[in-house]
Amino acid sequence: MNRLEELFVEKHSSLRAILEEAFHEDVELAAWREQARDPKLLLERWASGLRFPEDSAIALSGVGDGSHIKAVLEAMPESGMVFCAEADPERFKAFLRTSVAEELLADPRVALGTGPLDERFFESLRSFPVMDFEHAEPVVFAPLFNEAESYYSEFFTEFARRLDVCRKLVGTLISKSGLWQGNSIRNLPTLARSPDPMEFFGAFDGVPMIMAGAGPSLDESLDFLRWAQDRAVIVAGNSSIRALVNGGVRPHFVLAADPNRTTDSGFEGVELGDTILICPFMVYPAVVERFGENVIAWAKGNELASYFRNAAGVQQLAHVTEHGTVSACAFDIALIFGCSSLHFVGQDLAVRSDGRLHNSDSFYRDEGKDVTNVEKCRWVEGNTVDKVPVEEKLFVYLKTFEMMARAYAKEMQPLKRGGLVLYNHSRLGAKVEHMPYLDFDQAKQRLDRFSSSSFRQKWKRVQRTLSRYMIGWGKIESLYLELQGYLESICSLALRHAMALELGESDQETARAAKSELLDLIKANPNFEAIMDSGQLQMELYVYNRTRLLKSRKKEGAQSVEHEALKDYFWAVAEGSYQTLAAFEGSLLAKAKTEELR
């Protein structure tokens, strides 16, 4: 060492060992350099530093020859997963032809991807138990990472974001399953007898549709909507109908899909007239009650609703895409109705410069929930201005609309029949790809060609069809009561054995036989089993399985583990089936009350 190095070491004594190692004998340094050239030894040195917590979702850069992916799998807990991205599609294709790729793809913990980091790239995330991953871990394999640093950096960021979104979506699906099914059961006596949207297939052939959102620009859209009355099918959302009616616009339809009580707030004090509700079975029941028999409901995607629809003889069910915002449902409704174009007003997908989220006549403003902090917004390209502020939730909706526009815009499917001509009329809103902005004068030029008298004839036919449609309750009641009896039997058996284990009145052998009996009872009717699995039981079994996984990591006696597992299973089934039964009782009471009022 020279004098400068000696002075440095004296000042930083903690670094002495590092510097001494760096100045080993030339022979040792040469040997280290030789080892560094050996890919196998280099990989071993890299892998020796890998440490992952339980429940890790790992993002890895580059496929290479697959050896570093295998090293990660060896270091990773069995409860984790690894998603490996490759920047070069040609390299990825070559890799897929190897035996290593075949071996990795057979591993349920592995996902591979290449190309643009878009929705399609991350689709495979949905096939993993994303709720179980508490940690998102980026892992840099430098030889490949350095070849496309910006791509892999974006992949790590996007992976963490997509995993979080996916976890929230699945978490909502599981945690809200009881609420959704409970609402569906309470709505069943009315909605099982109401028409599906497919009953109105082509009802407004060639007519434009206007979907009115509750964004700030709805205030300046009311003159246009009054002009457009009976020149187009006007659809409101549950949070915009009040502003329309108070502004002199009579929407023909209103879309409501949220299962929570706040959905009903938008209808308070609103004169509904002959506006028709379009909704899924899981919508908040008070909303359905407001509309009486003036309701069209979709059932597809809902096990209970689809079963009773089919039992009532309805075989063709409408597919209506739900993506967290009710306005997104308008795409499918417009296609089913045969509309030629879909125009969005009040669909800003952005906030005003003062932080306002909604129009001035909104229940959100009544409740003081109408302002956000613009400083926390991200800025995106606007329809008429360079940049507009977009709050995080609205940004998710913006990306949803861009995805929907790509799928539904007529310009995107020139070789296919169907599709919609899409327009956005929100002056200060965010720009949506494949949904060009038009001002109201331009919009009027496109709508002015449609005859109001012709529209009114179509509208009257829809009203007549709806008034004559209602299916008799007798066609549904027997299956309704049969399902209720099925749930009572399961709940009773599960509760009886849960209590016996809790009080120490049952041994392991008896409990095992009881579980087998319970499973046979559940599987005796596959349709009812699917209905039960899609309700509160889904949440109860998730908690049960998660608890079992955590307990399995602790060192406990096998007999003690089995005893707890059996007891927890019986409680999960008892609680899940009980919650569904309670919804049935509420549904029957609601039906009796409705009939009494009539």
Low-confidence stretches: 1-16, 29-36
Oligomer: single chain
* Number of contiguous helices: 25
Could you describe the largest sheet, including whether it forms a barrel? 7 strands, parallel
| Strand order of the biggest β-sheet | 9-8-7-6-5-10-13
Strand content: 5-15%
Overall pLDDT level: 85
Radius of gyration: 30 Å
Protein name: Motility associated factor glycosyltransferase family protein
InterPro entries: MptE-like
Keywords: Transferase
Domain 6-hydroxymethylpterin diphosphokinase MptE-like: 183-352
Polypeptide structure, described:
With 598 residues, the protein is α/β, with parallel strands linked by helices. It folds into four domains: 1-37, no CATH class; 48-174, 3-Layer(aba) Sandwich (Rossmann fold), CATH 3.40.50; 179-466, no CATH class; 474-597, Up-down Bundle (Four Helix Bundle (Hemerythrin (Met), subunit A)). The protein has helices at residues 3-11, 16-22, 26-36, 39-47, 67-75, 89-96, 99-105, 142-145, 149-175, 177-191, 222-228, 241-246, 262-265, 285-291, 303-311, 330-337, 363-366, 392-408, 440-447, 452-469, 474-502, 508-523, 526-533, 536-552, 558-597; strands at 56-61, 81-86, 110-114, 135-139, 209-212, 233-237, 253-255, 276-280, 295-298, 341-345, 378-381, 387-390, 421-424. α10 (177-191) runs parallel beside α25 (558-597), α21 runs antiparallel to α25 and α24 runs antiparallel to α25 (558-597). The protein starts with a helix and ends with a helix. Residues 1-16 and 29-36 have low confidence and may be disordered. This is Motility associated factor glycosyltransferase family protein. It comes from Pelagicoccus albus. Residues 183-352 form the 6-hydroxymethylpterin diphosphokinase MptE-like domain. Keywords: Transferase.
